[in-house]
């Protein structure tokens, strides 16, 4: 397979204060690929995905979308190519669920343009995909944590970017919802050639959905295929605790031994 | 052809109906403020007076006293409500108001300083200089960190609150030192008063500019309302937009304060209450706030000059008396 490289970084170094989180990461994410970022708390997973999203500057190195360095892309041009799901969302003001999903259409609209029927249809399709049909008129502040998470995912899907960067998309979701929601997201890669990078805390989700993985920890980030990275020995070293793989096929995970 | 109503989204027809209803209310209140006062003037006499084809005393009162004062009240109310709506989104705080960055404090120090010096003609320019100086000070200090940190809403908010407290101390000092004869005028200015010589044109012009500028960024504000990260990810130039809109809100507030002193509660309560009724889409909320704020202040000022006539109250007393219970009622509904 020889799909186009959507997201690339070269010589990426991430630091917070004087602490180096990631040194010299080279990464190429192609259309249709699903990547998982795994690692212990505080290792720099969120920093890495936010840097790939262009929301913070790396200490050194460069990120490029479709071969164009981020420095040459304005905020709106970036938003047309990549979408970003933050770890948490806060609702400061009242808004309906449909209005919130429509926010994803913002970069596609001109300054004085209103959402068209097609934009609204896209937002409603996205809500339906995450089981939120019939929620359109609800105030976001009355939703449960899991419903808000699925709404944030729906807004991202309504944005329809080519690169999806997700920070813990499965947080607040129960097991069934995790499988359903990540199923929707990864189908975008399989069927529509989107490039997906997601921080995953649950190793069973990484095993089930990721083709590739980046192990972040100990001051470095190591990319590879899922088969190379998501192994008992690599992860045991990464998390500083002996882990054993249980189960088989897609229904497997790692447990502390 | 009208689109079928969609749950969770205001139709264009509903948006138009809300704005038309508020515009009609504003017109009615403006008409009433021309009719009511020491001499009551009928509808046809008002129309004649506005056309300028009568020269009696009633016409002169309508044309030369009530009309400029009502227009100034409308402009000030609209500016304050617009500025409050902008500040609430920019600071991601539904309880923010136009004075939160210390603008009214700076204007008050300028105005009271001019009064203390006995320079009545300098009160308005001094208030303007004070408002702009305070805004500049807050923006400079908010960024004067170790590493020239970017403007964040929290830093702006904290800096504004502290600078406002500093102005408050200066105001108290000036009131203490002022000769008794001047204190009443100073208090009226602080509470907010439209009784002085009033020229509505500058405030109306700033209102037109501020509203047009804010509407151009209304959808960006919708995105900013969901947080800086969401806005950055969706292509809003967060720092530049926040800065530009804060400056616009400061200009609106400065124009309002320069015209009428620091009238309270309009800028806090109007956008807050409207948001509970019509939602938080800034493309609707901003013009609706301007219309409702304008109408409210015209009504309040008409009350202020008639309710205990011949004594004229400062309009800020009325807005506070109405604003406090309304605000507490909104809070107790638990939907802030």
Structural summary, described in words:
The complex is a heterodimer of chains A (257) and B (336). Chain A has 257 residues and is of the alpha/beta class. Chain A has helices spanning 45-52, 75-81, 97-102, 117-129, 145-159, 175-192, 203-209, 226-229, 232-239, and strands at 5-16, 19-30, 34-38, 60-65, 68-69, 82-85, 163-167, 195-199, 212-217, 220-225, 243-248, 251-256. Chain A has a six-stranded mixed β-sheet, with helices on both faces. In chain A, strands 2-1-4-5 form a four-stranded antiparallel β-sheet, covered by helices on one side. The radius of gyration of chain A is 18 Å and the shape is globular. The termini of chain A are far apart. With 336 residues, chain B is an all-alpha fold.
Please give a handful of descriptors for the protein shown.
heterodimer, A: alpha/beta, 6-stranded mixed sheet, 4-stranded antiparallel sheet, 9 helices, globular, B: 336 residues, mainly alpha, 14 helices
Outline of the structure:
The complex is a heterodimer of chains A (257) and B (336). Chain A is of the alpha/beta class and 257 residues long.
Structural class of the secondary structure composition of chain A?
alpha/beta
| Spans of at least 5 consecutive residues with low confidence of chain B | none
- Count of beta strands of chain B: 0
Q: Nearest-angstrom radius of gyration of chain B?
A: 20 Å
Could you tell me the number of beta strands of chain A? 12
Tertiary shape of chain A: globular
Low-confidence stretches of chain A: none
The ordered string of helix (H) and strand (E) elements of chain B is HHHHHHHHHHHHHH
Average pLDDT metric of chain B? 89
The major sheet of chain B is characterized as: none
The total count of helices of chain A amounts to 9
Radius of gyration of chain A: 18 Å
Strand content of chain B: under 5%
Helix content of chain B: over 70%
Number of helices of chain B: 14
Distance linking N and C termini of chain A: 38 Å
